[in-house]
């Protein structure tokens, strides 16, 4: 089995198990008659744990030059926490389990780090395929969660999440390679200058986006009432993303990666205007397709920028900080969207946070100014042993010619 396919299966299962919870937690809050504030805590505590643990796991994995142990243990703990949530409807117990689950999911950034470690300079050729698989997992997970919740009840979806996570742990342990050997001592490599501006760009854009995504399943009840249909509409974004992920992977070979990020942000702002004026479910679906294009551009641009600019000995930290930036935004977003919705209504809230996304652009511009310094890091010589070129070449060229 070729390694591109194995990595794709692993990230698909990761996206699937996560997406189930992204849909189910708001619907469970709605079913339990929790307030939007309590729903925000259930979402925020998960994100808080990722914020706290992503940099730690990334630093340790760089120091020990190991990714797989973190991935396997984290995925198993994530599965266990999902399973335990099946047995509880107590708010405090759910909070505790969500925190544990977030700490476990914080290891997920190691999957991208392992991918870039293994393929090295060739990683960009296959990254569109890798990201497309993750997006497909998100789409299938959201759709499956809606169907399971409608047919068997909301709690039954936790079993689906746990099962997919367990399968993912098996694929990682049995199917993925270890990090390639290195002759370099296990010391920290420096991060390229200016990455804080990249993380700030991510934080601002995602905080505004999460203001809507945190209540999106609830918002969809204004257009459809069936949970399976809610899952279908919610998943339409992710189900079409694989097409655009592969396309953006091809475009990334021709354009500066930061231009893809810029297009993604501008496209997101326009899309949120479409969400705000939506009067029927078909306009929501249109918005879902538009956000799929925008997010594909931004995701491919961000990840390939890090793969190209960051040396192997710093990738765990770089991707850990990236995940922490996303999840810090995921923690902040619900507390932005809830009060704004209460004060102005959901439609005006969407317009406001769409406008707030523009505040990410100055950080992106500053990073573009500093980019020549980042390139200097990428060109630093290394003594890493070469990989088995025959195996890698066969894997890379078998992938498509070129990831909520």
Descriptive report:
With 404 residues, the protein is mainly α. It has one domain (3-178, 190-379): Growth Hormone, Chain: A, CATH 1.20.1250. Helix content is 79%, strand content 0%. It is built from 16 helices and no strands. The protein has helices spanning 3-31, 36-64, 68-85, 91-105, 109-119, 123-152, 156-175, 195-213, 216-219, 227-251, 257-277, 281-309, 315-344, 346-356, 361-378, 389-398. Helix 1 packs antiparallel against helix 7 (156-175). The longest helix is centred in the middle third of the chain and has 30 residues, at 123-152. It is globular. The two termini are 29 Å apart.
Named CATH architecture: Up-down Bundle
Q: Please tally the helical runs, counting DSSP H or I stretches of 4 or more residues.
A: 16
Structural class: mainly alpha
Cα gyration radius (Å): 20 Å
Shape: globular
Low-confidence stretches: 183-187, 376-404
> How is the main sheet built?
none
Predict the CATH topology.
Answer: Growth Hormone, Chain: A
Helical content stands at over 70%
Mean of residue pLDDT?
A: 81
How many runs of DSSP E, i.e. beta strands?
0
Strand content range = under 5%
What is the H level of CATH, i.e. the homologous superfamily?
A: MFS general substrate transporter like domains
Integer count of domains: 1
Give the CA-CA distance, first to last residue.
29 Å
Q: What order do the helices and strands follow?
A: HHHHHHHHHHHHHHHH
Question: For the record, what CATH class applies?
Answer: Mainly Alpha
Oligomeric state of shown chains: single chain
């Amino acid at each position: 089995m070729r390694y591109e396919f194995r990595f794709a299966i692993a990230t698909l299962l990761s996206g699937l198990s996560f997406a189930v919870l992204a849909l189910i937690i708001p619907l469970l809050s709605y079913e339990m008659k929790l307030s939007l504030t309590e729903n925000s805590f259930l979402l925020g505590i998960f994100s808080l744990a990722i914020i706290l643990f992503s940099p730690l796991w990334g630093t340790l994995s760089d120091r020990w030059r190991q990714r797989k142990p973190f991935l396997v243990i984290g995925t198993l703990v994530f599965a266990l926490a999902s399973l335990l949530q099946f047995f509880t409807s107590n708010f405090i117990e759910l909070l505790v389990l969500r925190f544990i689950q977030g700490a476990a999911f914080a290891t997920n950034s190691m999957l991208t780090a392992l991918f870039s470690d293994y393929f090295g300079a060739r990683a960009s050729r296959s990254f569109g395929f890798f990201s497309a698989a993750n997006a497909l997992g998100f789409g299938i997970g959201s759709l499956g969660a809606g169907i399971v919740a409608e047919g068997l009840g909301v709690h039954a979806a936790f079993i689906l999440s746990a099962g997919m996570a367990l399968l993912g742990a098996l694929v990682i342990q049995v199917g993925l390679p270890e990090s390639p050997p290195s002759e370099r001592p296990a010391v920290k490599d420096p991060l390229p200058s200016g990455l804080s501006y990249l993380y700030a760009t991510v934080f601002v854009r995602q905080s505004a986006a999460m203001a809507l995504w945190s209540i999106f399943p609830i918002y969809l009840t204004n257009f459809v009432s069936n949970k399976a249909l809610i899952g279908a509409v919610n998943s339409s974004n992710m189900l079409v993303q694989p097409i655009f992920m592969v396309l953006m992977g091809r475009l990334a070979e021709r354009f500066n990666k930061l231009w893809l990020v810029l297009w993604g942000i501008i496209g997101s702002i326009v899309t949120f205007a479409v969400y705000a004026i939506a009067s029927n479910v078909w306009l929501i679906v249109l918005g879902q397709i538009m956000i799929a294009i925008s997010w594909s551009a931004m995701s491919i641009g961000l990840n390939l920028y890090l793969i190209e600019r960051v040396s192997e000995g710093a990738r765990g930290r770089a991707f850990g900080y990236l995940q922490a930036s996303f999840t810090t935004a995921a923690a902040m977003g619900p507390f932005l969207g809830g009060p704004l919705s209460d004060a102005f209504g959901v439609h005006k809230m969407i317009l406001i946070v769409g406008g707030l996304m523009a505040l990410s652009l100055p950080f992106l511009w500053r990073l573009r100014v500093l980019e020549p310094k980042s390139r200097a890091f990428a060109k630093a010589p290394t003594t890493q042993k070469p990989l088995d070129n025959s195996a890698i070449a066969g894997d890379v060229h078998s992938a498509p010619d070129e990831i909520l």
